[in-house]
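Pasting as-is:
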Amino acid sequence: NAEYMGVHRLGVAIYVGSRSMLCARLRLLSPLLPAPARYASSSASEKKLRYLIVDGYSKDGRQELENGGASTAGHLFDRMLRKSTPAAWQVETEIIHPADPGYSHPDLTKYDGVAWTGCSLTIYDTADPRIPPQISLAQKAYEVGVPSFGSCWAAQIAVVAAGGIVRANPKGREMGIARKITLTPDGRGHPLFEGKPHVFDAFISHVDEVTHLPSAGGLHLAGNGFSRVQAVSVTHKRGTFWGLQYHPEYDLHELARLTFCRLERLTKLGFFKTKENGQQYVDLLEALHQDPSRRDIAWMLGIDEDVTDEIVRLCEVRNWINKLVIPAKLNNHI
């Protein structure tokens, strides 16, 4: 195993060890990670975090996922946020669908954080009426100053709403497992990635990529050989948005179902020689999800703790909650 370094924030000890040892250390630390000293002084009514979940999929897109046995993006994020929020805090969520007809912006001041899901729309398709309301919502979040976070579509929304540019990736679709995502110098020192290996794999599915960050306030935090920008931090007006191009909300089952939903398209793109080959891949993902001890399947697919260990996979989500959402909530009650 390669060597990884992590920082134990409860002391100042530097830890160096194998990837598996780092995963074990993160599991031990995860209940302790969220504990600013001011928690004890918060009243019971203040110990509730209200998340707005922005599911960018169209109604047809959500139906396609459900027909293939996948969870809708909004419900995936709901589960992820509940798992990642410290136990001392109650969680309240609301899922909205800005691509649906009749949508209007909610009052963002009611929420402690805005979480953006992935989406199958194309952000630079200016003729699509489902796109402008989503960009406008992100701009309002910047104006209000509510902390924002999300995956895939979210990184693109974060950038475009602050003046950056997204275009089609000339390499085509990145699908399944994004390999060797590497933190940039800015990423290695950024709180979004505290406790994360400097090189890791992650679940992914996208065809567009960030090509130009906003002229001010944008940080390039991670990338790999397929997509130069895999994570960004954008500070604009009063707000901060941490966006990932990859999908921490997925697990092996959800990747299997998403692949099943897109099997015909993926076969045409050359990911599988035949649809039967694609179905075999789906079945292997499901088998490993059901029995994580199947080292033969993990070896065959090249999958390790980066994606199978929930503590490692959700590190960025916990960091957003602990380092942006909760401090902003507490500051509002000082």
